[in-house]
């Protein structure tokens, strides 16, 4: 069946909101890294072990992977459709004056995030699932030391920080845009969703940005 | 005042077209933008050159015929304004003004600044109507409509179909245009009978015409001469999603 542009957007909105939800859980878990090194090590390794052994988490992680791929593939399809719909470019284009930068650059921001995800998955998922890891004194994989080692170099912290800024701008537009695509049109709730989006974005972006810096200075 | 113009010239839909330079030495600040274009065309006629073709009709901002990209903005530098309601006082002596047609694959160029907006008509033909028998005028209180609903429907109906929403959209989306008509009819009791079929037919036609998707940049609302709200787009999405769930 041929999909309409709205159906494409629904896939973007659905997967996007699922990823938004995931980010909350991901951040809440990771906030344990803000504890003092000794405490964080014990807590975080226990938490990582808990997640790794849980079947539900495994299923969610597959849904997560599918969501990321679907979100990226559909974005690419829509970008190609747009290229076709636009036709000839304007010789002089000032259309950017009338819309926010983020709303026009979701593709660019998304690409930065995708590149970051490859780095991020290599840093942690690959190391924990595909390499032999040292165990801590509780007998759990020592994920905390992997985190510390990753954020040992300042420039690596910087890569993460820049990526989180891209995530932040992506969320700023994505969150409210998804609500619109789903059909939220009541002026009162539209406003509420926009404010919620701002608070959500500030929480997620701020939280994630804090962690590498704290880990860097704590160790 | 002196005005330098860079205008898109294209002989026919198939020819390539290019930006050409013109100069007007005696433009009055009181002229409307289209009067300035008339002045240019008169000078071209005197030189026996082909005039710059552009669409226009009422020249009082209500018909939706005129529309150009002026200095990279749909209908020029002002917001919520048609091209004909733009005046030369918005420009300075010695300014260079870029004038291009509204661009979108679904709006093929007929000649110069004139584009074919038939795609809009086809979207309306797909469902932007009610199949009511047109007998005698019914009793005025026969169908009661709350004032707020009537106003909201009228706000949506105010769309003049100029195409600025498509031209300013980074995706060349016709969502604002299509959604305005869908909302207008979805709000009124007369529109209920074909509500489900209408939204699906009109969205499908919009896609078939080759318009892009909506990214919610909200640029269209800024340029729209009638200030049609982007919330109509959200409402169209709601109508569409609901129709997908309930259609047979």
TrEMBL record, chain A:
Signal sequence region: none
The entry's keywords: Membrane, Transmembrane, Transmembrane helix
GO cellular component: membrane
Source superkingdom: Bacteria
InterPro entries: Cytochrome_b-558, SQR/QFR_C/D
TM region positions: 59-80, 101-121, 154-176, 197-217
Record protein name field: Succinate dehydrogenase cytochrome b subunit
Species lineage: Bacteria, Pseudomonadati, Bacteroidota, Sphingobacteriia, Sphingobacteriales
Automatic annotation (TrEMBL), chain B:
Entries under Pfam families matching the protein: Fer2_3, Fer4_8
Gene3D superfamilies: 3.10.20.30, Alpha-helical ferredoxin (1.10.1060.10)
GO molecular function: 2 iron, 2 sulfur cluster binding; electron transfer activity
Domain 4Fe-4S ferredoxin-type: 150-179
Coiled coil stretches, renumbered: none
An individual GO BP term: aerobic respiration
Superkingdom of origin organism: Bacteria
Cofactor list: [3Fe-4S] cluster; [2Fe-2S] cluster
Family according to the record: Belongs to the succinate dehydrogenase/fumarate reductase iron-sulfur protein family.
NCBIfam families found in the cross-reference section: PRK07570.1
Name of this protein: Succinate dehydrogenase/fumarate reductase iron-sulfur subunit
């Amino acid at each position: 069946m041929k999909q309409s542009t709205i159906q494409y957007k629904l896939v973007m909105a659905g997967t996007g909101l699922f990823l938004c939800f995931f980010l909350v859980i991901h951040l809440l878990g990771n906030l344990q890294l803000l504890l003092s090194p000794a405490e964080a090590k014990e807590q975080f390794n226990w938490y990582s072990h808990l997640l790794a052994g849980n079947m539900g988490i495994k299923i969610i992680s597959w849904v997560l992977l599918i969501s990321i791929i679907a979100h990226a593939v559909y974005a690419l399809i829509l970008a190609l459709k747009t290229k076709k719909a636009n036709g000839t470019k304007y010789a002089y284009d000032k259309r950017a004056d009338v819309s926010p930068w983020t709303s026009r650059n979701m593709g660019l921001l998304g690409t930065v995030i995708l590149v970051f995800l490859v780095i991020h998955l290599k840093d942690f998922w690959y190391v924990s699932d595909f390499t032999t890891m040292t165990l801590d004194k509780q007998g759990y994989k020592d994920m905390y030391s992997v985190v510390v080692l990753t954020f040992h170099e300042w420039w690596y912290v910087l890569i993460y920080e820049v990526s989180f800024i891209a995530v932040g701008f992506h969320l700023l537009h994505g969150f409210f845009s998804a609500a619109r695509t789903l059909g939220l049109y009541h002026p009162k709730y539209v406003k509420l969703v926009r404010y919620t989006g701002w608070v959500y974005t500030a929480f997620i972006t701020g939280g994630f940005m804090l962690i590498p810096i704290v880990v860097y200075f704590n160790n | 005042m002196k005005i330098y113009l860079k205008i898109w010239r294209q002989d026919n839909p198939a020819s390539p077209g290019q930006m050409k330079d013109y100069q007007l030495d005696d433009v009055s600040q009181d002229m409307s933008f289209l009067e300035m274009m008339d002045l240019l065309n008169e000078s071209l006629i005197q030189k026996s050159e082909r005039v710059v073709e552009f669409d226009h009709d009422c020249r009082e901002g209500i018909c939706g015929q005129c529309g150009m990209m002026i200095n990279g903005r749909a209908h020029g530098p002002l917001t919520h304004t048609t091209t004909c309601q733009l005046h030369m006082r918005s420009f300075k002596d010695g300014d260079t003004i870029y004038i291009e047609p509204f661009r979108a694959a679904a709006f093929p160029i007929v000649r110069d600044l004139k584009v074919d907006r038939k795609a809009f008509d086809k979207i309306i033909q797909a469902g932007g109507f009610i199949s009511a028998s047109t007998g005698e005028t019914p009793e005025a209180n026969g169908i009661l409509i709350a004032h707020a609903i009537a106003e909201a429907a009228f706000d949506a109906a105010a769309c003049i179909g100029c195409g600025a929403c498509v031209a300013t959209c980074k995706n060349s989306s016709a969502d604002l245009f299509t959604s305005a008509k869908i909302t207008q009819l979805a709000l009124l009791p007369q529109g209920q009978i074909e509500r489900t079929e209408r939204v699906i037919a009109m969205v499908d036609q919009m896609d078939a015409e080759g318009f892009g998707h909506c990214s919610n940049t909200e640029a269209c609302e800024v340029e729209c001469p009638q200030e049609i709200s982007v919330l109509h787009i959200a409402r169209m999405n709601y109508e569409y999603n609901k129709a997908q769930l309930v259609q047979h």
